[in-house]
Amino acid sequence: MPYAAIVLLVVAAGWIGLKVRAAYGSFGGREPVTVYDAATWPPFLIAIAAYLISSTYEMGWPGWMYIVVWVASVVVIIGVIKVSMMMGDKPLC
């Protein structure tokens, strides 16, 4: 079991969760909050974890697959941050 990959994924998820929470609390993006660094470093951690997992289980992924994992992570994280900023100024029912 690749424990380093699990640690990287937990760190990435925690970082993303913290920044999504900050984006939600920014009242629709009207308060200046630095949240887009969550779309910079955690995708690298996710791609490295994917490499560690695939090399441990000898999956033999091609190199471009890790770039796809990184790009997909960036797009999803930016989307989640945007949605949480838009919903942040609305009361929850």
Detailed description of the structure:
This protein is mostly helical and 93 residues long. It has one domain. The chain has helices at 3-24, 41-56, 63-87. The mean pLDDT is 86.
Q: How many structural units, i.e. domains?
A: 1
Number of discrete helical segments: 3
Shape: elongated
Strand content: under 5%
Radius of gyration: 15 Å
Mean of residue pLDDT values:
86
Structural class: mainly alpha
Could you tell me how far the N terminus lies from the C terminus, measured between alpha carbons in angstroms?
Answer: 42 Å
Order of helices and strands: HHH
Total number of strands = 0
| Share in helix | 55-70%
What summary fits the major beta sheet?
A: none
Uncertain regions spanning at least 5 consecutive residues? none
Structural key phrases:
93 residues, mainly alpha, elongated
Q: Strands, helices and their partners?
A:
Layout: H1 3-24, H2 41-56, H3 63-87
How is this structure best summarized?
The chain is an all-alpha fold and 93 residues long. The chain is 68% helix and 0% strand.
